[in-house]
Design brief:
Chain A: Belongs to the ABC transporter superfamily. Chain A: Keywords: ATP-binding, Cell membrane, Membrane, Nucleotide-binding, Transport. The complex is a heterodimer. By secondary structure, chain A is α/β, with parallel strands linked by helices. Chain A has a domain of 250 residues: P-loop containing nucleotide triphosphate hydrolases (Rossmann fold), CATH 3.40.50. In chain A, strands 6-7-8-3-9-10 form a 6-stranded mixed beta sheet, sandwiched between helices. In chain A, strand 1 and strand 2 form a beta hairpin. The radius of gyration of chain A is 25 Å and the shape is globular. Chain B has a domain of 208 residues: MetI-like fold (Orthogonal Bundle). Helices cover 77% and strands 0% of the residues of chain B. Chain B contains 14 helices and no strands. The chains are: A alpha/beta, B mainly alpha. Chains A and B meet through helix 2, strand 6 and helix 3 of A and helix 9 and helix 10 of B.
Chain lengths: 543, 308
């Protein structure tokens, strides 16, 4: 075992919260080999991040750790504070999920790089450290002119490159990357992963990457550790894992990854006899930005949703996809153009008409915890639209709420529970029940599963589709995840920088994209197949 | 940065005119006639009253009096009081006392308040943290005159460590006792604010990343945490300095310090309008200038404000 860079032996981590002890990591054993990229994969609560933080002695003070962590033969758990300080950064470096938050907002990125270099190489002069910092910035492909920029002046992807530059500054023996690309768009994710893998040849050490994304695993890993509920489920070489998973959980995890083509082709009904459920004509949305500049979030967009169709609106952050959803709901200012819901124009109608029309629209937001009133029971939340718009009261209301709970496959008795008693997936089911309570003609789902684990996401998407099959509402499904859109949508519209650049039925857009941006987006989304990812990377690096 | 400064200065000028006019109007709306009380028990003859009213343009409409006042103010002239003494000179004699008192109190607040807050924040939920909270609140809930008189009794009379009242011993000896009493009332707020800010910063992602970089505890806390947590505290401290400069009426009274607070109190009591307005104007200027300095300091400390 001594040839391993880092090894965990029977690691247990307990957190004490308010007098009760909660075990986050339970007898975890695995090791990182020299020079390899090891992926630790698992859903939220699997203990993967806690395991990584333990290796650096970075756990909060209410954690108690048992077992053994050895790094290059030294026992990390028995190290003093000053020994840990010499270990961190110098021998084990770490990068985190939220790159903008991981940099001190009040110092320039150059100062933070120089600080790292001078802490671990005090012999270097200020000028030499600066030279080295500039060299590192070039290495992660950040222009030298950005040296004096503050973190908030850079994009998330750029900040993560800076973090990588800081992490590799002292040539660590091990680089731990905790969900390094989760907060980033797919095209940016790909660039950051490329930079990260390029470091492999530049530093002599190993990389341990923690992720929930099987696509990222397939893309970068040599070996994989699968964790669940604080324990290791399976450890395998990457091809082995994807081809022949030995554990049912690994299999389930792989199955839950959304893959396209599960939905049958849309029935070829050209719903010309009825008005479209939603029609957006030449929509422009502008916000007043800083210093009086206007920011055009949506730029002359035309989009039509027919009744009974699910249309996926895809794009990266800042593409304007959510703004379109908001403008339909009256939450974004319509600068010009028209939004019609079931033929009713929203900009010209009286406020009473608009209210009535909006009652025909259901909404599901990304964060189910934030969109449910924490002080209302889920029964109250689900029943509120019925009480407000239909005047349903008493037993009838209770009956309707129970039916709605049935339809989202939650127990009827849960009507009296509060949101904090539910898991994320269950809360999102409540949001869906509330959204369909008025039997809407149009459902707007804004990243409804982005905050959920893959296995939960799979069941929520399943549910959404079966309800849509039954109720036949039109649905505007806003998402950044092409695989999810591929799985549930009939039609797909792709947005970039406020413009709608391509739309059509699912097969034509996703299998035969015409626009260069769509092609790039599709190529950047990692698929859970190591061979395919290796092939793509080869093509990309070749030219 | 330049744009930011200019914008703040324009705001300052607008606020200055608005507030000085409000004070000016308020003082002249006070009940009672300042001129007739000049004579004490003997009523002045109507001719004399009329002459004084004329001299001070008291028969003009309010707006024209205000404009005339502003005109003088721009040349640095605060006018004369009803006894013909220059308001500016009277103020000039008082300011040094008040400024010494306020600055001393402020420094005590910064050092002890921020220090206690930092310790409490770094040792959150320990007995030290709770002790700081209880102590500061307990002290702040004692009325100021009780605190002041007790301090005089203990440190002045019993222990004979410090002078009881007056400024005859000069700075710092004469000012230590009143400044400490004055400072105690801001301590709880400064300590609490610092504590909260330190806790927020310590639990932020970037501090965890700084530990992971392998920085020393001294560097993480002394450079990164301190600078990030000082931003909200600084705002409070600057406003507090403004309040200390203008609000030490009771303390100046108890410790018999001939400062601006005492002068203000006396002037209001005898309807000495020009002096009241003069002091108020000076205080407004102090407030406005400190708030601009705070904004500029904040934007130096926090680049996100600077680039907004």
């Amino acid at each position: 075992m001594s040839d391993q860079v880092l090894s965990f032996e029977d690691l247990t981590v307990d957190f004490e919260v308010g007098g009760t002890t909660h075990r986050a990591v339970d007898k975890v054993s695995f090791g990182v080999q020299p020079g390899e990229v090891l992926a630790v994969v698992g859903e939220s609560g699997s203990g993967k991040s806690v395991t990584a933080l333990a290796a650096l002695g970075l756990l909060p003070s209410n954690a108690s750790v048992g077992g053994r962590i050895s790094f290059g033969g030294d026992d990390v758990l028995s190290m003093s504070r000053s020994e840990l300080t010499t270990l961190r950064g110098r021998r084990i470096a770490m990068i985190f999920q939220d790159p903008v938050g991981a940099l001190d907002p009040v110092f320039t990125i150059g100062a933070q790089l120089v600080e790292m270099i001078r802490t671990h190489q005090p012999a270097l002069s200020r000028g030499e450290a600066r030279e080295r910092a500039l060299e590192l910035l070039r290495m992660v492909e950040i222009p030298e002119t950005r040296f004096k920029y503050y973190p908030h002046q850079l994009s998330g992807g750029q900040c993560q490159r800076v973090m990588i530059a800081i992490a590799v500054a002292c040539d660590p023996e091990l680089l731990i990357a905790d969900e390094p690309t989760t907060a980033l768009d797919v095209t940016v994710q790909q660039e950051v992963l490329d930079v990260l893998l390029a470091m492999r040849s530049k530093i002599s050490g190993s990389i341990m990457i923690i992720t929930h994304d099987m696509g990222v695993v397939a893309d970068v890993a040599d070996r994989v550790v699968v964790m669940r509920k604080g324990a290791v489920v399976e450890t395998a070489e990457v091809h082995e894992l994807f081809d022949h998973p030995t554990q049912p959980y690994t299999q389930a995890l792989l199955d839950a990854v959304p893959r396209g083509g599960l939905r049958a082709e849309a029935p070829a009904d050209s719903a010309s006899d009825t008005a479209p459920a939603l029609s957006i004509e030449d929509l422009v949305v502008e916000y007043r930005g800083r210093r009086g500049r206007t920011v055009r979030a949506v730029d002359h967009v035309d989009l039509v949703l027919n009744p009974g169709e699910i249309t996926g609106l895809v794009g990266e952050s800042g593409s304007g996809k959510s703004t379109i959803g908001k403008s339909v709901l009256g939450l974004a200012p319509i600068t010009s153009g028209e939004v019609r819901v079931a033929g009713q124009a929203l900009t010209k109608a009286s406020s009473a008409d608009v209210r009535q029309t909006r009652a025909r629209i259901g909404v599901v937001f990304q964060n189910p915890a934030g969109s449910l009133n924490p002080r209302a029971t889920i029964g109250q939340s689900i029943g509120e639209p019925l009480a407000v718009h239909r005047g349903v009261r008493g037993t009838e209301l209770r009956g309707r709420v129970e039916e709605l709970l049935d339809s989202v496959e939650l127990p009827r008795a849960w009507a009296g529970r509060y949101p904090h008693e539910l898991s994320g997936g269950q809360r999102q089911r409540v949001s869906i029940a509330r959204a369909i309570s008025l039997d809407p003609d149009l459902l707007i789902a804004d990243e409804p599963t982005s905050a959920l684990d893959v296995s939960v996401q799979a069941t929520v998407l399943e549910l959404l589709r079966s309800i849509q099959d039954r109720l036949h509402f039109a649905c505007l499904f806003i998402s950044h995840d092409l695989a999810v859109v591929d799985q549930v949508c009939d039609r797909v519209a792709v947005m970039s920088q406020g413009r709608l650049i391509e739309q059509g039925d699912r097969e034509s857009v996703l299998r035969d994209p015409q626009d260069a941006y769509t092609v790039r987006l599709l190529a950047a989304a990692p698929v859970p197949d190591p061979r395919e990812q290796a092939r793509r990377r080869g093509i990309r690096l070749a030219g | 940065m330049l744009r930011f400064t200019i914008r703040r200065l324009i705001e300052l000028v607008l606020v200055f005119f608005g507030v000085t006019f409000a004070i000016y109007a308020a003082v002249f709306a006070l009940p009672g006639d300042p001129i007739s009380s000049l004579g004490g028990d003997q009523p002045l003859s109507p001719a004399v009253v009329e002459r004084i009213r004329d001299l001070y343009h008291l028969n003009d409409p309010l707006w024209s009096q205000y404009l005339r006042y502003l005109g003088h103010l721009l040349t640095g002239d605060l006018g004369v009081d009803f006894r013909g003494r220059s308001v500016a000179e009277r103020l000039a004699a008082r300011w040094p006392v008040t400024i010494r008192l306020a600055l001393t109190a402020w420094v005590i607040q910064v050092v002890i308040g921020v220090g206690l807050g930092l310790v409490a924040g770094l040792r959150k939920n320990t007995w030290i943290d709770r002790g700081v909270l209880i102590l500061t609140i307990l002290i702040a809930s004692v009325p100021i005159f009780v605190m002041a008189v007790t301090a005089q009794l203990v440190f002045g009379v019993k222990l004979s460590l410090l002078p009881i009242a007056g400024v005859s011993d000069g700075w710092p000896v004469s000012y230590l006792l009143p400044a400490t009493v004055l400072a105690i009332y801001g301590l709880a707020a400064v300590a609490r604010l610092t504590r909260g800010s330190v806790i927020d910063t310590m639990s932020s992602d970037f501090v965890r990343a700084l530990w992971a970089k392998g920085l020393s505890r001294r560097r993480v806390i002394g450079v990164h945490v301190l600078r990030n947590s000082s931003i909200p505290v600084l705002t409070y401290l600057a406003i507090d300095l403004g309040a200390l400069l203008g609000g030490a009426v009771v303390t100046e009274g108890i410790f018999n310090l001939p400062g601006v607070g005492q002068l203000l109190f006396e002037s209001i009591r005898v309807h000495e309008g020009p002096t009241v307005v003069g002091i108020a104007t000076a205080l407004i200027l102090i407030f406005l200038i400190t708030s601009v300095i705070v904004d500029l300091l904040n934007s130096l400390l926090d680049p996100r404000i600077r680039h907004d």
